[in-house]
Amino acid sequence: MILDDFLVKTEHGYYCRYGGFYIDAMLPVACNLISHAHGDHATSGHRLMYATAATFAFMRNKFGKISEESLRVATFGSHFTIADVAVTFLPAGHMLGSAQILMEYKGMRYLYTGDYKLQDDATCEAIEIVQADVLITESTFANPGVKHPDVTAEILKLKDKPSNIMLGCYTLGKAQRLTALINQYLPEREVLVHHKMYPIHKLYEKLGPTPMKYSLYNRKAMKEGPANKVYLVPPLTFNSYFKAKNVLKAFASGWERLQRQNDIELYISDHIDWDDLLYFIDKVQPSEVWTIHGDGRHLHTHFSGKLQVRDIIKQ
Prior knowledge:
Blueprint: E1 8-9, E2 14-16, E3 21-23, E4 31-33, E5 48-51, H1 53-63, E6 71-73, E7 79-82, E8 85-91, E9 99-105, E10 108-112, E11 134-139, H2 151-155, E12 164-168, H3 174-185, E13 190-193, H4 198-207, E14 215-216, H5 219-223, E15 229-233, H6 235-240, E16 247-252, E17 264-266, H7 274-284, E18 288-294, H8 297-302, E19 308-311
Parallel strand pairs: 3-4, 4-5, 5-6, 10-11, 11-18, 12-15, 12-16, 13-14, 13-15, 16-17, 18-19
Antiparallel strand pairs: 1-2, 2-3, 7-8, 8-9, 9-10
Helix pairs in contact: 1-4
């Protein structure tokens, strides 16, 4: 029997009282399972933390010293038990080290996706799809009107532009994926990265599957030589350069609002779109779908009378 309250949303994070642990807690708790290292999922200060080795590496880079005694490294595919709940971390395909969390309790399988994508990404582990009785899925782009275009076609929009390009993107995960895409499809382009991205690139080189070619940004490199540079910058830096001259501006994101007033539209997202969400649900074959991180109303309407879809219970 599916337990409606197996995982609930609290002010601290998503809580499983049957295992006595949280998932992606935002406030310090006794035991926290961390799906991936982005700031809206990973925080420090917990007495006990479970995550992949890559996630902990990115957290050390962000937070500095973390008590090693509090860390429990979860290897993809390995099983461990917390109280009476069996837990397995599975690749989510969102970024390097990102995990889905499969929880098994009294014969029922509950799958928490974290953030995930189905598109190919050479810089991280490919998603692994398993079946579950309950799918607890992000719904960032759970809208029939959202369809992410082919990534190769999008990155090729930067080809043959007679100018250097300032490319806004998120520092962790997206910047490294873009670097690899530019290296592969636009080898004539030189990638320069912002100083905040540089250490993350180094960690990706150490821990990830794909070597990357890039340099740390400096003004001289941007101004001299051929106009073949792509300068990757974080969102705040990108916004501060709204009057930048002699460059084309683009921002890599699935959000339409972030494409406005740029010279190039670049729809590259690290989340699932509507079609991929439907495909994923079909493969997981859940009896129920619980939605988090977004708006599940379109999904509820789509499956009305066929599959139970609801927001996760708030406590």
